[in-house]
Amino acid sequence: MEAMLPLGLFFYFYYDEVNPFYPLSPGGRGLACLPVGRGEGDRSFNHGGKDHMKAIIVEQIGSFILKDIAIPEPGNGEVLVKVDVTGLCRTDLKIIRVGHRDLVLPRVPGEEVVGTIVKQGANTDGVIEGQRVYIYPGTSCGQCKQCKSGAGNLCVDMKIMGFHRDGGFAEYVVSPVESLINVLDHIPADEAVFTEPLSCCLNALELARLSRDETIGIWGGGPAGTLLKCASEAMGARPFVIEKDERRRKLADGFTSPPEKEIDVAIIAVGNMNAYRDALKYLAPRGRLVVFSGLPKDTSAMQIDLNQLHYHEQTVVGAYGCSYRHGQQAMDMIGGGEVKVTDMISHQMPLKKLDEALVIVEQREGMKILLYP
Fold first, then answer.
1. Residue 55 contacts residue 69 (beta carbons within 8 Å)
2. In this structure, is residue 204 part of a structural domain?
3. Cβ neighbours of residue 168 under 8 Å, at least 6 residues apart?
4. Domain shared by 92 and 174, yes or no
5. Which of 130, 260, 307, 327 has a Cα-to-Cα distance from 40 of 20 to 30 A?
6. Residue 295: its pLDDT value, please?
7. Beta 368-372 vs 78-88: how paired, if at all?
8. Burial class (CB in 10 A: 0-12, 13-18, 19+), 22
9. Facing residues of 290 across strands?
10. Do residues 27 and 169 share a domain?
11. So what's the pLDDT on residue 238?
């Protein structure tokens, strides 16, 4: 039985967060983080007697279907993961409502996934069934210039879970072994699932060359902006959040305008051109502006006074997604209590209520929404 759920138009609101979390690929690495297990797996696993699962399918832009599909089989170098929780982000809203440049249809969305390994394909030495894992959403070639330089997220052959292959809006998902990061026993799944968005924030802070005691202005007090604030505090910087929405500003202990005349780093975690213009006004000499959130195609061009960059030696740098190492770092920070995420969870909903969850994201009625199959 299938239920077609029509969706309305997608609107960009002033200071609405456009989540830039396009998690990309690792660029080659070992499996030191994973315990030793069987290479062939237990072929007798029967999914509790089931051969089908519930999944969200995007077959055409503007709508999705909740339907029964066959439980996928892990291939060579892959494992089957039973989904424990999937995070919902603004990228998912964009994928369903207006599409995305990397999206290949039909597709099961969902790139923020934590679950449990339940079956192994061939050549999966280094993993063990029953282990809880976070799935880094990308795969890369490991051989191109970008991969070898540590920027696997910019791999020429990158493939992303939820974009190029099926993601976590389902009961089960297949993952390459090289995308797995173990979840330690003391970390709840509801916290571990923040690893992906935090990874993207860590990539942005790395590109910003943020140092201890520097001031950092973060435009946008949504989930991304809040994680940027928490991570920069953990690094010893002095962050503040600029947010127009009163509810989110209160949660982030933020401001309506920068409290300081000059800032060392500005990161834009909202999809609005005015935020970029505003940030440039406050950038200190040798300040760095990080382009963290994308913009609608028809509003992505702006004029910049190059003399300002020239005379003040300022830098503008883009930040897109994250690499596998950022996922490891994010998991360590969450597990070590450096970044606390529990208070960011505003809604916990069954996957079948995705349509309601998307409305909450669109209308900014909450912070982080977690979905359960």
1. yes
2. no
3. 83, 86, 108, 110, 111, 112, 113, 115, 135, 161, 162
4. yes
5. 327
6. 86
7. antiparallel
8. buried
9. 267, 317
10. yes
11. 97
